[in-house]
Specification:
Elements lengths: L2 H8 L4 H31 L3 H38 L3 H36 L4 H16 L1 H16 L4 H23 L9 H23 L15 H33 L3 H37 L3 H28 L1 H5 L6 H14 L3 H17 L3 H17 L6 H25 L19
């Protein structure tokens, strides 16, 4: 694939059709990964409560790494490559693929060392003791032992998506997910010559997935079929900066988003076991929105980035608005149905009256604001493509401050839930204002005829 074939596909033509065409393979793979994660939890549950609790304690740290590598630093890689290709700087795009490998190795090593050195204290602070702590440490040490190949695989996939190739990363991830689904029970329980490894087996399956994915993507990108040929390149500070100016702010934004959830959970927990259980069940619906928004968002990163690189700023804004509209419609429909019929979701997990009442209180107040969360997240991804993350960062910080400051002052559980909804509203409104005004991308909203067309 060269620039001549990229330009007709992404710099002109129907925007909505192109966005959905790039998004659906990612969405299918994310749905498959969710199924695999649920299945692995089910396998581990046969090992007993200590094993299940230990794996559960590792999951938030693993998800933080996944979100950072795929959506934050990965978004920076996709954005930089898309902008380089759109501007006709193919040499920089090829070099950025190698820089992605170096960044993957560096960030992967940080996570490995962080868990090895800080894992015991972290899991103890989360309440792990005895066999639960032993299970958590065993699983975490194995999973994060392969953090480097895991990061490299995710950043290589991001590089290909930035070049408009979503098919190969989807195929590799799907194949790896199916392999994990087969290997997890084999390693956990053993069969034939393969010994039973218990919790360690789940960790070994993850090592195989990460190493296999990194190897498969690297081999493909060494072939002539790849739009980006992977080969060692001289390292340039400017190219690292091009990735990190987007990726680092996005990474901090990811941490803030997780902190918002942690703080809300802590505030809800002060209202008792039933409240925390109901909130936990209801807020799972929030997390189910992420794969949909990530799939649409990665498509926006690629298309916006290429058009920004090519100087087609008005089309880039049209792409951002189209992505925001599609995301808002999808999340809005889910949110309003959840608010109108909260029991339909909650009864899938519990019929305890107090638990259902707390969950329904959350959904009836927060779910209508999903529409703003969807629009805000779409603009967040489009801003990654444009290489402008200051306003989305401010939106995430505002959301966190609303939860921490105003939420902490809430006198009732229902009041806290209204404030959680307000935080979604603020997040979406700030991002919408940034895009509509032109301030978000460093460009005032001038009429198209007088808007400057030089690169930012």
């Amino acid at each position: 694939m060269n620039n001549a074939t990229i330009r007709p596909n992404f710099l002109e033509g129907p925007i909505a059709k192109q966005l959905l065409g790039l998004a659906w393979p990612v969405l299918v793979v994310l749905a498959l990964q969710t199924i695999v994660a649920v299945a692995e939890t089910w396998f581990v549950s046969f090992l007993g409560t200590d094993a299940l609790a230990g794996v559960a304690l590792v999951f938030p740290v693993f998800m933080l790494m996944t979100m950072m590598s795929n959506g934050a630093i990965g978004g920076g890689v996709s954005s930089a490559i898309a902008r380089a290709l759109g501007a006709g700087r193919r040499g920089d795009a090829l070099s950025l693929a190698w820089h992605a490998v170096v960044l993957g190795a560096a960030f992967g090593a940080l996570f490995t060392l962080g868990v090895l050195l800080g894992g015991p204290a972290l899991f103890r602070a989360m309440g792990a003791r005895g066999d639960t702590l032993s299970a958590a440490l065993l699983y975490a040490n194995l999973v994060f032992f392969s953090a480097i190949p895991g990061w490299i695989a995710n950043l290589l996939a991001a590089a290909l998506r930035g070049a408009g190739n979503v098919r190969v990363p989807a195929i590799v991830t799907a194949a790896g997910s199916f392999s994990t689904l087969a290997l997890s029970p084999l390693f956990i329980f053993g069969w034939g010559p393969v010994p039973s490894m218990g919790v360690a087996g789940a960790g070994v399956a993850m090592i195989v997935f990460n190493v296999g994915s990194a190897a498969a993507l690297a081999l493909y990108m060494r072939s002539k079929r790849s739009p980006l040929r992977l080969a060692p390149q001289p390292l340039k500070r400017q190219l690292f900066a091009d990735v990190l100016k987007v990726g680092l702010l996005s990474a901090v934004g990811t941490v803030m988003a997780n902190l918002s959830v942690v703080v809300t959970t802590g505030l809800v927990g002060a209202n008792g076991r039933d409240a925390i259980a109901g909130y936990g069940l209801a807020s799972r619906l929030d997390y189910l929105l992420i794969p949909l928004l990530f799939a649409l968002g990665t498509a926006s990163v690629t298309m916006v980035g290429m058009n920004i690189g090519a100087g087609k700023h008005e089309r880039a804004r049209q792409i951002a608005w189209t992505g925001a509209l599609v995301s808002a419609l999808a999340t809005g429909v889910i949110g309003f149905l959840a608010a109108l019929f909260p029991q339909a979701w909650l009864h899938l997990f519990s019929r305890e009256p107090e638990v259902v009442a707390a969950g329904a209180a959350y959904l009836s107040r927060v779910a209508p604001f999903f529409i703003f969360f969807g629009a805000g997240m779409s603009i967040y991804f489009s801003s990654q493509g444009a290489g402008r993350m200051a306003w989305p960062f401010a939106a995430g910080l505002t959301r966190l401050l609303i939860v921490c400051v105003i939420g902490a002052a809430a006198a009732t559980l229902n009041g806290l839930f209204w404030i959680a909804g307000l935080s979604y509203l603020a997040f979406g409104a700030i991002n919408l204002f940034a895009l509509a005004s032109g301030y978000g991308w460093g460009l005032r909203a001038l009429p198209a005829k007088v808007r400057p067309q030089e690169p930012y």
